[in-house]
Amino acid sequence: xxxxxxxxxxxxxxxxxxxxxxxxxxxxxxxxxxxxxxxxxxxxxxxxxxxxxxxxxxxxxxxxxxxxxx
Length: 70
Prior knowledge:
Number of strands: 0
Shape: elongated
Helix content: over 70%
Strand content: under 5%
Largest sheet: none
């Protein structure tokens, strides 16, 4: 079973109003929306870091291949 933790956030009034409206429209708790938003943000950050790592590896691999095949 997952353990939940309670958090307190301070956000802009406009953002709160948008979240409140989305919560009512989608019939989801604001905590569920926040959890999904945090999960999405973490996934995007991880993907961005992985993409950067792959680009750096590609540059290193090309440099190594250039040296090797000279």
